């Protein structure tokens, strides 16, 4: 009978293996960096494991923040033989992204090359080369650029209304909702429709299955991070960490997406309502003269990463922002006044209202500053260079502590307070403008050419979802305040106690006619 190895034992076994191979590696292969090259300052380290012991914490951004407040905003660290620099100040982040943008436009080797998930066919892990440039152009033109977003506006309006009706249903039945899950469901459905241009998923549950796989991928993320970090030292010994688990999710994604691809290829032109992202990519796949010859795996990997990049991040930000709003009734009141005066009370908020709702924009921006879903960014220096007067050797991993940069007291007034007003034009002084020129202080979407291409879409998702929830409902919670404790979720910074609350239709309800129809549908008294 095959031996049963439980998870703890497995982790312990991996740890012992790691230590063993690191010792070997250290003695046989590891070359110390030259001591005369003025590396950035480094906290005391231990033999072999380097600074690993300083970073063992559930909340990695907090461990990094503790290190930087003790030893400085620019540090040289080593985990086993993997060298890293840790950046925690906006001025150093500015210098790196201004002078070394191309040099740091590579995220590092993928943990398992052949996986569709974070493998070598992904856009996210692709080096800054021909494939990445080709896909970036297609993405901006057909999916995420401002003109493409205008074309897909109808999809988002329909889904926002569906989201509203779902909340209304819960409100009428006096049931509570988990805001993060509901917002993630909304963004997942929208992204699915924007990519596949189809609504038939409602019948055969494909979006739901994609969502299930995305959730499994989040659970894998911590392992993926470790596997990426340790790929270099371990591959010399033929070890690929967590390969089976990663490949299992990859295979199930492959099955689902191959089926959708084939269906899409077989659809008659009359069944298409204009071309969607899948058509665009299939055309590029068939085009013998395309600037870059993409493969089917490129298409599948790209879809997977858009599901992953665009759903949980939006869900988490929406729930953090709603939690701040519920905890600050004065913010709720000001937001509602703004929405009522711009949108009125006879229709639902729409995307086209957003430019006229500066306070809503400021609240969402502050939500992203205060609770960045991706609190830490990782890239790789491909060449050695000088930063802040120090030398950074080639192949050094760059870690930017986004969380610390956006709470850097040198750049932000009252950095540990939730103050949306700081983003209103009227409160930005000339001095702030000048300071902004020399720093890179607001980076929830990263920076430079590898910065997030979905930022505009993300703002639309979160602003319309938060706007609608404030416009149409009051929110009942258990207790007086929402508990704002953090936990490292699968991939993003999550709430330790996910926000669960009950929507109560606002009186007078801005959309009384929809409320009446819903009550009739549910056979309740109007
Ligand atoms: C609140 C929502 C979001 C946040 C906070 C966020 C944040 C980020 C961050 C920090 C990065 C890495 C940037 C860097 O290395 O400088 C990134 C990359 C990326 N994001 Fe987002 N993102 C969000 C939503 C989205 C959405 C909605 C999409 C698309 C549907 C998307 C697609 C991507 C892609 C494709 C990349 C990889 C870009 C590249 O490697 O060139 N993201 N995102």
From TrEMBL:
The lineage of its organism: Eukaryota, Viridiplantae, Streptophyta, Embryophyta, Tracheophyta. Coiled coil: none annotated. Its main location: membrane. Keywords: Heme, Iron, Membrane, Metal-binding, Monooxygenase, Oxidoreductase, Transmembrane, Transmembrane helix. GO terms for cellular component: membrane. It is found in: Membrane. This is Cytochrome p450. It is a single-pass membrane protein.
